[in-house]
Design brief:
Elements (H helix, E strand, L loop, with lengths): L9 E3 L3 H9 L3 E3 L1 H10 L5 H13 L6 H17 L3
Parallel strand pairs: 1-2
Helix pairs in contact: 2-3, 2-4, 3-4
Length: about 80
């Protein structure tokens, strides 16, 4: 089986080399924090669960810069404010 390019293809990739390769092939790349955030935005997980997931990643030595982690938290807060009660 081979990819024909007719359907959108998205991968969850946090490794820099993997991201570069995916971009060369025209594949949309999303990191783990983005995938979790999109789960919250789609109402698949609650706010508290999302925050807990973010924290548990750090506890498990998930490698992320302070800048990216801070941006993910800011995006989560913005998404929370946009969500209807």
């Amino acid at each position: 089986m081979s990819y024909t390019g007719h359907l959108p293809l998205i991968i969850d990739e946090d490794d820099k080399t993997g991201r570069r390769i995916a971009r060369v092939w025209g594949i949309e790349v999303k990191g783990t924090l983005r995938v979790i955030l999109e789960g919250y935005e789609a109402r698949l997980v609650q706010y508290e669960e999302t925050r807990d997931l973010f924290r548990s990643l750090l506890a498990e030595r998930f490698r992320v810069t302070a800048e990216i982690y801070g941006r993910a938290l800011a995006l989560l807060e913005m998404a929370k404010e946009r969500k209807p009660a």
